[in-house]
Amino acid sequence: MKNIYIYLKTLLIAFVFILQNCSIVNALICSKTDPINCLQFEPLARLWNVSNEEVPKLLDLEKILISIDSKLQPLLNGLSFGGTYIDIKAGKINVNTVDQSKVNEIRNKMKNDQDFVNFMAANNTLSQLNSTFNQTFILAQQFNITNYEINIEPEFNNVVIYLNMHDGKNKKFIENVETLNPSPIIKPLSNKEKEEILFNSSTLVEKRNIYILVDGGNKIVSVNDHANGTLACSAGFWMKKNNEDFIVTAGHCPDHFPSLFYVYSFQDNHLIGPMNSRFIGSYDMGFIKKTNTNIMLRPVIRQFDIINLRFLQFFIVGSSEITSCGIHICKAGQITGIGCGFVSAINSISDFDDRVLIRTIVVANMPNNDGDSGGSMFRYNGLNGQSNLADAVDIHIGGIPGIQAVGMPINIAFELGYPLVTI
User: Fold this and answer.
1) Which residue from 43, 115, 229, 231 lies 20 to 30 Å from 265 (Cα-Cα)?
2) Where are the domains of the chain?
C-alpha cells in the first residue's frame, strides 16, 4: 500500500509540473492589441522609460546592437580607442575615440553597420585604462584596503573606485591613486553603505515553514548556529551534475560549511539538501544538492514586482554571456523582488569581506539589498515578442543598495561542471 501511495504521489508531482509549465505552449506574446501579455515587461519598461508595448521592439534592437558590438570590439585598437557602450534609447553603440584619424578605417570595416556606430571624442584609451586599473589593484593590495570595488566603466571613459573615503587607512591609497594617469574617479560611500556593501548579504530570519516548489528568486534558508533563527538568501538556477540536481546560489550564504538548506514558506519545513560544494575565493558560488524527493525544482524564475504588486514568472530557455556595457540585466531576489538595471562594467575587481572577487559584472540602477544574494540574474529573451522567456546570465552576489548590484557570471558554473536546466 505504501508503494502504491509513493507511486501515485510521484505521478501527481509530475502532472502538476506539466500543468505549471504548459503555458510555455500558450506563449505570452506582447502586442498593442493584447496588452495583458505585456505586463511581464513592466520592470524593463520602467528601466527604459517606455511603455510595455514598446519593449519587444527595443529588445530586438538591443540584440542587433550586441551583435554589432561583438564585431566592432576586436577592430578597435586599444591605443586609439577607449571602449564601447550601448545606448539603447539612441539605438547606437558609442565608441570612445581618442585618435580621430582611425575613425574612417573602422567605418570602412563596418560599412553595413556604420549607422549604428557613434564615435565620441574621449581622453583615455583602453590601454591607459587597463594600466590604471592594474596599478589601482596593486596599490589596493599594497595598502591593504578592504571593502572596495574597482571598475573600468566605458560610459565614464575611466576607472571608477567605490570605497569609504572616511576610513583612515584609505587616505594613503587615495593619495597614491590620484597620481595615476588617468586619475580614477573615486565615488565615496557613507558608513552605512560601507556596512551594506559587504558581500555577507544574507539576512537573519525566524525559523518558519517551507514550500515544496523551488524557483529562481525564492527565499532559501540555512540554520544559523549563532542565533535562534536561520539565515536567508535567494535561489538562483536549477543546475545538473552527474545526473544529480542542484540549486546554484551565492557561496557566502551559509555562516558555516557544509550547511543544510530549506525552502521558506509559512506552512511546513521542507529540506532541500546540503550545500557541500562552494567556491568563495576569487568566485562566490555555492551548489545545494537536492536530496529531498518531495522538493521540485523548476527552470523558472518567479518573484514579486514590488512596484506593481504582482508576481511575475519567467521560463529559463537558455543562457547568455555579457560582453557589452549599456545592456539590460534583471534580478529576482527575495528582498527587493524583480528589478532591472544597465550593465556599467564587465571588467571589475571587488574586495568584500576579505575576499577578492574577479570576473564580476556590475549593474547600475538595480534594486538590491541584504538577502537578495544568490538570486537569479537574467535577460529578457523576447523571442517573437514573448514576455515570459528569460536567459540566465549571473548569480547576484551583493552590491551597494540604491547604487548598483554585482553578479557572478553563470558561465563560471558551466566551467565548474554544472550545466543549466532549461525548458
Assistant:
1) 43
2) 46-121, 126-197, 203-415
Do residues 240 and 418 lie in contact, with contact meaning Cβ atoms separated by under 8 Å? yes
CA atoms within 13 A on the CB side of 188: 8
Per residue in 59-88, pLDDT tens? 999 999 999 999 999 999 999 999 999 999
203: cell is 539576512
Computed over every residue of the chain, the mean pLDDT equals 88
* CB-based contacts of 166-174 (< 8 A; 24+ apart in sequence): 166/191, 167/194, 169/143, 169/144, 169/145, 170/143, 170/145, 172/143, 173/139, 173/140, 173/143, 173/145
The grid coordinates of residue 19 equal 500543468
Count the neighbouring beta carbons within 10 Å of the beta carbon of residue 35. Answer: 12
Is the backbone peptide bond immediately before 299 cis, with ω within 30 degrees of 0?
Answer: no
In this structure, are residues 145 and 169 in contact, taking their beta carbons and an 8 Å threshold?
yes
Q: What is the pTM of this model?
A: 0.89
Cα–Cα distance, 181 to 178 (Å, whole number)? 8
Q: In Å, how far from its chain's centre is CA 241?
A: 22
CATH code for residues 203-415:
2.40.10.120
CA–CA dist 401, 343 (Å, integer): 16
